[in-house]
Give the backbone structure.
Amino acid sequence: MRLSVLAFLTLFAVACAADAAPLPAPRQVDIPLSDGTLHAQLYKPDGDGPFPVVIALHGCGGLAGHSEPVLPRYRDWAEHLLKGGNAVLLPDSYGSRELGPQCRVKERERRVLARRQRLADILASRQWLVAQPWAARNRISLLGWSNGASALLWAVRPQSFSRSVEPDFRSAIAFYPDCRVSAGLGWSARIPTLLLIGAKDDVSSPPACRQMVDGARGRSALTRIVVYPGAYHDFDRANLPLHAISGASDAAQPDRGHLGGDPEARVDSQKLVAEWLAR
């Protein structure tokens, strides 16, 4: 009996060590743009593939930190997606243009617009991926947070489809985008699109997102919205020590609003993302 218990504990320790293995460092790739070069960080499973790919779009705080190419919140998601067998490409829309966070950028300052530059970044990323032998060309999906999710809403509209690069995206998941402009424009999606937002989000607008999704029914690909009661903006972020989310940290925050992880909503959103990507 003692040997059996010892063997069990050994196997358990091995399993825990495997789960705790550090995420491999990302590889920077350079993607051509019409007016420059888009730098992106790539996490890829071992092997030749082809692998499904998620293009992950950072929020207004940017992708990189002062000393790391990918902030912890996006690195955590990359690890989660890698465990599901996905490669993850994270375009750096701000760093590629030698700009910092855009959360507090004023109108007179240089800005990266979701419907212009970030949309161009998404389309260029897709064009680059379909040429990679390790990428499953018919399983390239989009995942975005906040400003990145707003860019995603533009990318999935029927008007944004580019026949020069086929096949189309497989699916899209948007975490708490700003839906106010899209709702007023009669938004619809050409690919299955999932929207996740907290009911207490006072940075984005849950009512506008509900209006946008409801208005798309009957003239759109499958769209679904999930509103988490009690959750605020950034609900999927792991709870961090106070110093890690201060204004002096890498994680730049919006001008207003309550932020913070919601463990229950975070876990549920991870499950929904996995299900949506597996469609």
